[in-house]
Fold this protein.
Amino acid sequence: MSMLVCTLFVGAVVLSGCSEAKGQPDVSKDLARCHRYLGKQNVGAVVDAMGEGDSNVSARLGLRDLAGRLTSEAEAWTENDLLHDSYSACRISVLGKDGGAQVTEATVKWSVLTMKSMSEPKYARSWRKVNDQVFVEKETGRPSMRLLVRCEVSGAPSGQGVGLPLEMEVADPGLNVSLRQKVLTAFARIVMGELACADTPKIPSVLPG
């Protein structure tokens, strides 16, 4: 059975040798979506940092589709609703010569945490306040970083912004902190912009450690 094969050269971040079989996803669209979510330069920097090997991207949800799903969940929110889907916006994998894969992935979901919970001691120890609308998880020792962002969605029930913040995460095989921050803040800004949050969260370029 023929399959879609598409390699992303390290450093150049260009597609090569792509062919599409009927019913298979268009990987070039996935790459364009990753560029949209994370920024073209950031994607290139991530691929470079992950080392040599065959690199592939996956981004099956377009930005508008992702925002639509998040909006629908926010509009249906109740205070007792604690189950929400996690969406993979962009996944970059590099297959090494030893057959092992390194993966960087940006995900977003409505959080089970609340803005009010950030003042509780157990969360205050693990999350740092960036401003009244944004919190960043402190260094955990694992290669990832999370943001909690208040986003009031138009048409959602009263209290949704406080009771149902967005949680965005970048998990990777060990990027340097500066690059991880660039990827996460770029991702957060593009999602916030598409959702058109009523309170316009301010996400700085540099996050406190």
Observations:
- The longest helix spans residues 177-195.
- Residues 1-22 have pLDDT under 50 and may be disordered.
